[in-house]
């Protein structure tokens, strides 16, 4: 069993391929299909991402840009783990792995070359702190860190620069994402934010 609070333990119910529900429990539920031996993990919240919900329709700064809007919210409401003078660290609403953070400058700029030296320093510092914090709370084995610059490079919100900090563990790429195109996330984002914020370095 893992001691990582961001990853599911090996002894979680249903992980042996058996359904946690008896056929009679499923029989009375509309929309779940005919009961069979297979267990299905429903992730309807992902449809918001697939359909582009909350994605900006313009490249302008302001309330239409989520990265401009988030700093005006409380840390809990905005899922902000930490703030610096010119940038902040926030949880990704559609994480690739548990603890997936983004480091974002407050200023609405699209390209890394547009950042000031102070902004570059804050982005770098928050990135280091994010790595330290995730290692502390969940013993991450490694990280994928990077920016997608421009829509052609895969940036979901290309107009406002953001750097991804994605924790990695041995075995986190298994049959679930490869075959089932599903990620298992065992903790609510609000709980993950609170855990990271509590352990975030103060210096």
From TrEMBL:
Signal peptide start and end residues: none
Transferase listed as a keyword: yes
Identification of the protein by name: ATP adenylyltransferase
Binding-site list for substrate: 92, 164
Mind listing the UniProt keywords for this protein, alphabetically?
Answer: Nucleotide-binding, Nucleotidyltransferase, Transferase
InterPro entries in UniProt: AP-4-A_phosphorylase, FHIT, HIT-like, HIT-like_sf
This protein's record includes keyword Amino-acid biosynthesis: no
Residues annotated as domain HIT:
66-175
What stretch of residues is annotated with the motif Histidine triad motif?
160-164
Q: Which residues form the active site?
A: 162 (tele-amp-histidine intermediate)
Q: Which GO terms describe its molecular function?
A: nucleotide binding; nucleotidyltransferase activity
* Species for this entry: Kribbella voronezhensis
Give positions of region: Disordered: 1-33
